[in-house]
Amino acid sequence: MLVVMQSHSTPEQIDRVLAAIRQMGLTPHPMPGATRTAIGITGNTAAIDPRTLEVLPGVLELIRVTKPYKLASREMHADDTVIRLPQGTFGQRHFTIIAGPCSVEDESMIVRTAEWLMARGVRFLRAGAFKPRTSPYAFQGLGLDGLEILRRARERTGIGIVTELMDTESASAVEEVADVIQIGARNMQNFSLLRRAARAPRPILLKRGMAATLEEWLMSAEYLLSGGNRDVILCERGVRTFSDHSRNTLDLSVIPPAKALSHLPILVDPSHGTGRRDYVGPMALAALAAGADGLLIEVHPDPDHALSDGAQSLDFDRFERLLAQLESLAGPLRRVVPSPAGNLPSLTSPESGRCTDRH
Amino acid sequence: MLVVMQSHSTPEQIDRVLAAIRQMGLTPHPMPGATRTAIGITGNTAAIDPRTLEVLPGVLELIRVTKPYKLASREMHADDTVIRLPQGTFGQRHFTIIAGPCSVEDESMIVRTAEWLMARGVRFLRAGAFKPRTSPYAFQGLGLDGLEILRRARERTGIGIVTELMDTESASAVEEVADVIQIGARNMQNFSLLRRAARAPRPILLKRGMAATLEEWLMSAEYLLSGGNRDVILCERGVRTFSDHSRNTLDLSVIPPAKALSHLPILVDPSHGTGRRDYVGPMALAALAAGADGLLIEVHPDPDHALSDGAQSLDFDRFERLLAQLESLAGPLRRVVPSPAGNLPSLTSPESGRCTDRH
Amino acid sequence: MLVVMQSHSTPEQIDRVLAAIRQMGLTPHPMPGATRTAIGITGNTAAIDPRTLEVLPGVLELIRVTKPYKLASREMHADDTVIRLPQGTFGQRHFTIIAGPCSVEDESMIVRTAEWLMARGVRFLRAGAFKPRTSPYAFQGLGLDGLEILRRARERTGIGIVTELMDTESASAVEEVADVIQIGARNMQNFSLLRRAARAPRPILLKRGMAATLEEWLMSAEYLLSGGNRDVILCERGVRTFSDHSRNTLDLSVIPPAKALSHLPILVDPSHGTGRRDYVGPMALAALAAGADGLLIEVHPDPDHALSDGAQSLDFDRFERLLAQLESLAGPLRRVVPSPAGNLPSLTSPESGRCTDRH
Amino acid sequence: MLVVMQSHSTPEQIDRVLAAIRQMGLTPHPMPGATRTAIGITGNTAAIDPRTLEVLPGVLELIRVTKPYKLASREMHADDTVIRLPQGTFGQRHFTIIAGPCSVEDESMIVRTAEWLMARGVRFLRAGAFKPRTSPYAFQGLGLDGLEILRRARERTGIGIVTELMDTESASAVEEVADVIQIGARNMQNFSLLRRAARAPRPILLKRGMAATLEEWLMSAEYLLSGGNRDVILCERGVRTFSDHSRNTLDLSVIPPAKALSHLPILVDPSHGTGRRDYVGPMALAALAAGADGLLIEVHPDPDHALSDGAQSLDFDRFERLLAQLESLAGPLRRVVPSPAGNLPSLTSPESGRCTDRH
Fold it and tell me: What helix, strand, coil percent values describe chain C, rounded to 5?
């Protein structure tokens, strides 16, 4: 941490700041300069509120240096986190795809989708049983009935289930069915929910909040990690800006710094990010090229009659074409994408990084 | 709702859109123009996802007309909502102030603050027992012990308690102690929490999310209203923008449109909005001038040693000066602010609007 | 400036950074800490690009400390700048109003507006002869004919003219007519224009760019100040955010930090800031309460038939009511607003600050 | 255009709106609905200010339907614009790269860079002679001397020159040297400059403003197109948001809608978009995958000693690796990237679209 004094600050003001720092149990390092004095602070600064020093007389500003997250940081954990599930792997050279409808509508469409996906080598199904909706009058999901449908689809096809957890009440029910639990963008800073999810015996897919900085996002991951759940997958899904040409502004530029600052795998959701099926394909390809570890993508057998988000869902034909395009780029980018070969993709080279063998 | 066709759209494309609209049980109104056709839609359009039509061939864009909120709208409810509690009133010509520390630290500071506030005529105390914190390592509040402290402060001084509800587990405990329940900005779209709060027998102070549009904010109010709780107070607390001169960008400009579109009272939180105590006073005065119905403001007996948010808290001296300034502006603006007279402020003219006499 | 090393940085990496700093002619101050080393830098750091150090191996980040503006800063110039013109004063306790139509439409409406304003004590007329318009097909202003109309209005009524300068070609013509030259938001970083305006013998009203930070805004003021023009008036007019309830997001919260960091007077334009005449009044009152030094406001004899921006213009009746409201708040806020007394407002106490007597 | 009336609007209010529309020479189409009336408007609505109707009594809101740009729109011009220059082509299946240092520093580094680029098949050099800088104290470019250096590099190597035009004064000098004239982000709405550039006999590279919507960007293109210059190349370079992990937020998601709404080629500048050389490569690959028509990218022989923007510049080695990666993706994406073969890339299939053969 660094305190920058005003150019006209008096020796008394500087002394008061030095004393305040010592009173916090920290060590001040005054650096007199040509026009002003700056004071470095060493010690455990995580516990203090930097703005307390900022309002002392003579202080121009206070600059935080240490990143507040630890377990999520690359500095503490140099190797990539790799999360292995029976259906597939998140991290390393895998480009893993989670596809399916926005919400569980009925059993036949879920099973049909799951079978179609498995046949193409896509081994994770996304579908919401509990749906966060802006309007209280909109379809809110089938709830427990939806979970039951997902459970049966899993039994019949072996597909991995990714579904959203909206509250602590339904946590046990969700973690029984889900192979990966999704925390939605609106709940990224629902800390009670994060604390509960930290105790779930399942990997967590943590979507970025609509106005979350990378640091805040990693801090929410830190809630999960410090609560005992080491299997966290980040998911960029678009942020809110002035731009009005798409539903949200899909921030692919967060991928390189997220990879530099953290060891966690990161997926991209081009469906919510753009809000229009015509724009999903190019953004999915761009996510792969930018270094993402996979996609969360809306696919629906009949998007024009979907109960929610049909406009941003791909039908099977479009999705199949996209899979082919992804495959054509994966080789040059040294990534492995799902293929209909029926076998799980495997990497010939030995994998590095922490690996969790689930189930 | 209005469908705008592309200028080169074919009659067949137009017919397909007309059919799709009829299939939804709605009535299309084609309007051929010089360069293109637009199609008005009447009927109950709330249930459909507009983007479904938007991706049909030949459609340029789809424009929603009806506001999706009803109970929160001025159109449905022309008169201002007025919420009367024994300690004071929200709405109409009252400018009601809720003051206190960010978090409950111990009983003596809470009681001392409550007594000081009551002596100045400020009859609502804010203080968090449960604190949403970005970092898992930061002070998370005293929890149930904090609630107990608030309960005792209420008993000893008669002050009204405003405190945050973070999850459904603690809802019963919070609603027993609180006179007004606060929903924080990060939980504005925690719909499970909103549904629970809708059943609480207490008014809800609903803070605006950091990236929430006015419409989304009113939709979250609609969750509360449609769930049975008619006593909703809005609270602007700063939104997230590129601006870096303050902690958030306090959006006072939302007040006139919120008043035009909705009947709900609206407060302003200049403490979180600015993040620095030097800026709190001017923004509090500006909130009064802009038409807000009151303030939620951080006041602490000893801000330099506060456990959280000390930098944005006023000490008693500064707050007393601010109260005097607010009072000097209230007269010209025809507003009633808290005064140390000991009596509740009362208005001589008969009040209009829906009034809820609580307790 | 402060270089923060990664926690695993090697002594060699630290040495390379120290050498790079010395090679720039600056002095490094290494501060070894528990988990990492930080390196303070003193000397003239204005000339270097901080990001050059940031990409050296082992560097986590580089933090700039010194503010890059000097002449615009409160640190270099403690007293408020006060700009005195025959028609009125900007700065100190004056709340000065510049009113008029968006654009010069014809002579009679300009003269009629000028006479009406002067009769109410508003002694500055705003009206654009050159208009920056998003669309090439929109009315672009009367150009030199518009300037001539403004010149005649000035002669007939004595009112001060505030009009926009859009390019260097028209600079001589504009500075001949204008008492205050306006630089529009879209040109805030048109550095060629700023360099020309710095040589104009007139005060400059510098509007904030739609996405400008406070620092960038003050840097643009620095172009004017360092180029020789000491009479710079800032003008907040709304910034671009995700918010869609008004045309722009009027950022009143910039006023306190602008006053803290700079000595320049600051006006507010509630017309462009909101885009709707219903919202202009509350925001104008809030600007006064927040500490602004005046208003730039659109007033039109017949807004419903204005050639541009009619929807955000007040008619004379509304404006007169607003003036009365402003006056009722000015006393408690210890501000002087224009009054129809016919005399220039004067302050009984001796004024401090740098004063420029123009003309 | 569509006027939406409030649900309680009276027949008289509706009649007044109908009359106002007719008075503008337009045709109103009233659509009575269950809860309110909407009024469609046909005719030439481009000239009117929609907000004029919006403030009439009983009007809830006014919704614009027609896009305000024409010549830039895909609707008016279905085929892609293709711009052919002797050094290369913008548009169609070409992925064209413009590379070089931020600013012209001296002749040897420019010639060295140009020779190196030509040897790799990159046939456009970017370098600023006139530099827009936030600070008046920063290096402002070599000016006319810089142009002369560029002219000589062009003569010696045959490379195409892309350089920025900052003001009308230097327009003749710039257009003599440049093969493509760049308009910078800060000048995207400098309409005097756009009008001048519209008359230049050179293609214009129009960077997106930091807070420009896609519509505003296309409107600025419309200034160029309607002024007579049909050769406009768009360039996305990052927009301003709350995100702080990179210098700007590179908005790759603008590419699909820009391609859908307009026929103009679009490049991406990953250097300004990210501000850090580590992030440039992934974003360049993502731009190609997202459908961009090329790159504007900073390459410098010795980035650590660059006079400006060194931290975001690639050195030759890094750039060479990036070129190889781009080439490996180009095939699957059916794009042609520059190759060191010495021949201009050519396409075997006949090209569609308007083609301009320059020189």
Answer: 35, 20, 45
Tell me whether D192 touches chain C (CB under 8 Å). yes
Rg (CA), chain C: 23
ipTM of the complex as predicted: 0.86
Q: Is B141 helix (H, G, I), strand (E, B) or coil?
A: coil
Longest Cα–Cα distance in chain B = 76
SS3 (DSSP) at B329: helix
Q: Residue C211: its chain D contacts at CB < 8 A?
A: 209-211, 239-240
pLDDT tens per residue across span D14-56: 999 999 888 888 888 787 766 778 887 777 666 666 667 877 8
**pLDDT, tens digit (0-9, with 9 covering 90-100), for B85-97:** 999 999 999 999 9
Residue C146: per-residue pLDDT? 96
Out of 3.20.20.70, 3.40.50.300, 3.30.70.270, 1.10.8.100, select the CATH number for domain B81-357.
3.20.20.70
- Contact (CB, 8 A) for D262 and D221: yes
Residues of C in contact with D138 (CB under 8 A): 47
d(CA D272, CA C313): 39
Distance, in Å, from the CA atom of A83 to the CA atom of C133, rounded to the nearest integer, reads: 54
Separation between Cα atoms, residue C56 and residue C17, nearest integer Å = 7
Q: Which residue of chain C is at minimal alpha-carbon distance from D313?
A: C52
Q: For the structural domain made of D2-63, what CATH number should be given?
A: 3.30.70.1140
- Extract the tokens encoding D343: 């021949």
Radius of gyration of chain B (CA): 23
Dist. CA B39–CA B17, nearest whole Å: 9
Question: Mind giving me the DSSP string for C165-179?
Answer: ---GGGHHHHHHH-S
Residues 6+ apart with CB under 8 A from B171: B165, B196, B197, B200
Nearest-by-Cβ selection for D249 from A244, A246, A249: A249
Strand partners, C73: C262
| Cβ(D114)–Cβ(D208) below 8 Å | no
pTM: 0.88
d(CA D350, CA B355) in angstroms, rounded, equals: 75
Residue that is written with structure tokens 């040297």 in the block: D177
Whether the pLDDT of residue A348 is over 50: the answer is no
DSSP string, D60-81: EEEE--S-S-STTBTTT--SPE
Residues 6+ apart with CB under 8 A from B315: B299, B300, B301, B302, B303
The confidence band for D346, taking pLDDT boundaries of 50, 70 and 90, is very low
pLDDT, residue A324, reads 96
B283 alpha carbon, distance to own chain's centre: 17
Q: Which of B214, B270, B274 is nearest to B97 (CA)?
A: B270
Per-residue pLDDT tens for A149-185?
999 999 999 999 999 999 999 999 999 999 999 999 9
**Domain coordinates of chain D in residue numbers?**
2-63, 81-357
Contact assignment for D31 to B42 by CB distance below 8 Å: yes
Q: Which contacts of B215-220 are long-range, i.e. CB under 8 A and separated by 24 or more positions?
A: B215/B67, B215/B68, B215/B69, B215/C244, B216/A134, B216/B188, B216/B189, B217/B188, B217/B258, B218/B69, B218/B72, B218/B73, B218/B258, B218/B261, B218/B262, B219/A134, B219/A135, B219/A136, B219/B68, B219/B69, B219/B72, B220/B188, B220/B189, B220/B194
Q: Which of residues 2-41 of C touch A (CB under 8 A)?
A: 2, 4, 6-8, 29, 31, 33-36, 38, 40
Q: How far apart are CA C277 and CA C247, in angstroms?
A: 11
Q: How far apart are the first and last CA of chain C?
A: 44
Q: Are B307 and B349 in contact (CB under 8 A)?
A: no
Q: Which of C266, A254, C239 is nearest to B240 (CA)?
A: C239
Q: How many CA atoms lie within 13 A of B175 on its CB side?
A: 16
Would you tell me how many other CB atoms lie within 10 Å of the CB of residue A191? 23
- C-alpha distance from residue A267 to each of A113, A296, D317 (Å): 21, 7, 30
